[in-house]
Amino acid sequence: MAELLQLAALLVLLTVAAGLLRILRGPGAADRVMAAQLLGTGGIAVLVLLAAATATPALLDAALTLALLAAFAAVALVVAAPGRASRR
Amino acid sequence: MTGLLADLAIGAAILALAAGMVAARSAFTATAFFIAYGLLLGLAWVRLGAVDIALTEAAIGAGLSGVLLLTAAARLAARPVATERAPGPLLTALIALCCAAVAVAIGAAILSLPEPTPSLAAEVAANLPATALGNPVAGVLMSYRALDTLLESAVVVLAVVGVWSLTPPGGWGGFPGPFHLRVESGPLALLARLLPPIGIVIALHILWVGKDAPGGKFQAAAILAAMWLLAWMAGLATPPRIASRRLRFAVSAGAGLFLAIGVAGALAEGAFLAYPAGWTKALVLAVEFALTASIAVALALLVMGPPEEEDRA
Amino acid sequence: MSLLLDGFTLVAVFAGILFFVAGTAGLLRFPDTSSRLHALTKADHLGLGLIVLGLLPQAGGVLPALKLLVIWALALLAGATVGPLIARLAREEDAPP
Amino acid sequence: MSATLYGLLGAALVGIGLFGLLARPSPLLRILAFNLLGGGVFLVFGAVARRGAGAGFPGDPVPQAIILTGIVVAFAATTLAVMLLLRLSAEGEGRSDPP
């Protein structure tokens, strides 16, 4: 069971790494914000899977912190995105 | 096997983001890379068996640093700073060569580390029960290297003083942070109303659990600071003026209490920062809570920045 | 009984991963921003949701299970907040005022 | 094995951060590169801590505690650098000279 969960964590990690291409290449700021948001959620999924796989509940606290602050960073990304003169 | 693949994936992603950051054209792009880099670095710390640092990196690296740099990038886009010319291709290549040499030298040092690695883990394990703390990193932070933690809380207070000293002439004593940044937009206001209560409960949980498991004051302080910043960014909370005594006391209270306990320890136990026998747990808790509150206020004020000119509102 | 739970965990977790892969593929392949946003929110909410759901029986205790649900709720809240902001940002980039 | 890998990653980050610091004109990019440099140094430290694991701890707690302190101090330094930069950009507007 633990190995399968670790394999699942690896798969999510590889998916998220692939998602990075959108950050690196994304033409617009919106694309980059989306990719960062997906990376945040992917990171949370990896942490949660590792917490179950290696039975270390501390990783759940790390995932909790990440979940709390990924939203915060994403909002900051959107608020500070270039070309936002109209929103301010 | 899956561990190695995970490390390779995390390492490659971090390197790609770092290279992308250095080669980025716009500051916003580089900052978006930096936030992604912070998140991945948190995973790297988990793989390195340092969950405490992963928590700190996620809270400070991905959260607070990201917001700080993003708001700075947005405001610098409006008023760019005169930058000198970029070095020519030849010079850039030379710089790249030297930096590569530095990296190779450090890499060589890593590969030739002594085999029986000198480690203090055994000593920490032996003396941990005396600190009444289960988390070894917290034990080191609060008793063996308590001086580091004291100096660090002093550094945070000094950073606030430094940032406030950058107030333009007309703005002294005003509200910290720029005026126009606050955005009354629907979704942000929703988040700013829902997230802080949850964040405060989580921060207290992480602070409390930090005694015996990864967690602790710096991570809790960073989360509390992020929650206050969120409310401030959405225009729901206006911080007190920097001239207010209460705010200044809040920023310096943690370091002050820690220093007082240190001096009291010197008088009572003969050694600076020594905790009297039966009091360790109580004193450590008192300092942890006071430091968390002070550092949370200080970190938030650091990200907000100095007050602006009154007339430019 | 535990075999059934383990089975449920594996099915849910790998279904969640499927959504992650689909969402990321959507993020990379779709032509314009708004369709990418559509793909992102699917991966975001359902991917993590299924993984969290799958891990609930493995949580071993009420507090970890509660933490898992709070993590999912926070991710949903984040997605719900950031989604419209990203959409407004995307629309602005396509047609600046 | 994974500790050495992350140590090498840290070394590479130091190189990239140093390059960004020296070769990039934009000041904000330099502050970011400086953070990369710091992140690389902490990773090298973390790899050493991981190799020193023992006595039931996944890593030697002393360097981990120092890295934790380092991250907070590095953040304080970054905020000061950013605020100096913002003041520089505000001053650059040709404002009236200060009294």
From TrEMBL, chain A:
It is found in: Cell membrane. GO terms for cellular component: plasma membrane. One of its GO terms (molecular function) is sodium:proton antiporter activity. InterPro entries: MrpF/PhaF-like. The chain crosses the membrane at residues 6-24, 36-56, 62-81. It is a multi-pass membrane protein. Keywords: Cell membrane, Membrane, Transmembrane, Transmembrane helix, Transport. It holds the Pfam family MrpF_PhaF. PANTHER family: NA(+)/H(+) ANTIPORTER SUBUNIT F1, NA(+)_H(+) ANTIPORTER SUBUNIT F. Belongs to the CPA3 antiporters (TC 2.A.63) subunit F family. This is Multiple resistance and pH regulation protein F. It comes from Neoroseomonas eburnea.
From TrEMBL, chain B:
The chain crosses the membrane at residues 28-46, 58-78, 90-113, 125-144, 150-167, 188-208, 220-237, 249-276, 282-304. GO terms for cellular component: plasma membrane. Keywords: Cell membrane, Membrane, Transmembrane, Transmembrane helix. It holds the Pfam family MbhD. Its main location: membrane. Residues 13-76 form the MrpA C-terminal/MbhD domain. It is found in: Cell membrane. It is a multi-pass membrane protein. Residues 188-303 form the Na+/H+ antiporter MnhB subunit-related protein domain. Belongs to the CPA3 antiporters (TC 2.A.63) subunit B family. This is DUF4040 domain-containing protein. It comes from Neoroseomonas eburnea. The lineage of its organism: Bacteria, Pseudomonadati, Pseudomonadota, Alphaproteobacteria, Acetobacterales.
Automatic annotation (TrEMBL), chain C:
The chain crosses the membrane at residues 12-31, 43-63, 69-90. InterPro entries: PhaG_MnhG_YufB. One of its GO terms (molecular function) is sodium:proton antiporter activity. Keywords: Membrane, Transmembrane, Transmembrane helix. This is Na+/H+ antiporter subunit G. The lineage of its organism: Bacteria, Pseudomonadati, Pseudomonadota, Alphaproteobacteria, Acetobacterales.
Automatic annotation (TrEMBL), chain D:
Keywords: Cell membrane, Membrane, Transmembrane, Transmembrane helix. It is a multi-pass membrane protein. GO terms for cellular component: plasma membrane. The keyword Cell membrane applies. InterPro entries: CPA3_antiporter_subunitC, NUOK/Mnh_C1-like. The chain crosses the membrane at residues 6-24, 31-53, 65-86. The keyword Transmembrane applies. It is found in: Cell membrane. It comes from the Bacteria. Pfam families: Oxidored_q2. Belongs to the CPA3 antiporters (TC 2.A.63) subunit C family. This is Na+/H+ antiporter subunit C.
